[in-house]
Amino acid sequence: xxxxxxxxxxxxxxxxxxxxxxxxxxxxxxxxxxxxxxxxxxxxxxxxxxxxxxxxxxxxxxxxxxxxxxxxxxxxxxxxxxxxxxxxxxxxxxxxxxxxxxxxxxxxxxxxxxxxxxxxxxxxxxxxxxxxxxxxxxxxxxxxxxxxxxxxxxxxxxxxxxxxxxxxxxxxxxxxxxxxxxxxxxxxxxxxxxxxxxxxxxxxxxxxxxxxxxxxxxxxxxxxxxxxxxxxxxxxxxxxxxxxxxxxxxxxxxxxxxxxxxxxxxxxxxxxxxxxxxxxxxxxxxxxxxxxxxxxxxxxxxxxxxxxxxxxxxxxxxxxxxxxxxxxxxxxxxxxxxxxxxxxxxxxxxxxxxxxxxxxxxxxxxxxxxxxxxxxxxxxxx
Length: 382
Description:
This protein is an alpha/beta fold. The protein has 10 helices and 14 strands. The protein has a 5-stranded parallel β-sheet, with helices on both faces. α1 crosses α5, α5 runs antiparallel to α6 and α7 runs parallel beside α8. The protein is elongated. It starts with a strand and ends in a 7-residue tail after the last strand.
């Protein structure tokens, strides 16, 4: 049979303990008793009670001192003080420490039953309020999750359409070149030029596919086996020779300043991609006679790399957009009509996947400065 509630009576007077039991048990309450604070504390720790009747003056201390451990175990447990020494000061202290009500000795069975019933109603309402609060919180979390899923669905749709558009243009051009040759519309002396243009288009397709694959890889959570302790300077020095050759071929001064050789916990391939994308972008959008400078250092528990150029620069309104997939500034399109617009988004994904940040400072027509920061490794390189 289900009880109306579990009651614990803590009082050193046997008459009070048994009197409470005789009054409460016939009304459907389960009653336990304790004659000392120590026994009462043990029962509180071992059991679950809806309401505690607590004497103030006990042989081994003050009952009021049990209010804290009672509410620490269950904040909604109702505590009723029973005492023959009721004072205003005691009432204020008890209420401040979490007591629900007082019963002054001696008391009648009717007063006890009324106080217990009111206390249990208070507990019921408190538990119901917590339950409703939990339901509201869960509903809010579900709404947020639904909103996030809808946002992701919209993003996936937009991303798919953008990728399809980016792939369609070069494929259509390539198909036109091949059909023109197949149908004999291209004179023999023009075929080589057509083939070179077709190869250029296929290279653009390969670049787009590579960038998409790299971006997808950077989106994945990097598991520990994919990471190792490595020198960020080593990664830079692996890619620098090829990039230097590209810069010199274009008539650009290329300088690398390794001031420290910081160690980071990172995916080696992605660290090479990070350097390559930032530096190749700087070279691509810097005119002949310009300069690209790379700096590596560490400070305040972080490694930081700087890639700065004297190139075309980025307008203030475009500086946030350049990290979005497929976005290219009008100035970038003028310098290089074909491009995927995925290089900087890939850089941002790599940096953030490794717990870092990246920022850009730029003046249109004067150049740009990209700075990324990564946390230093706490272990030495193997």
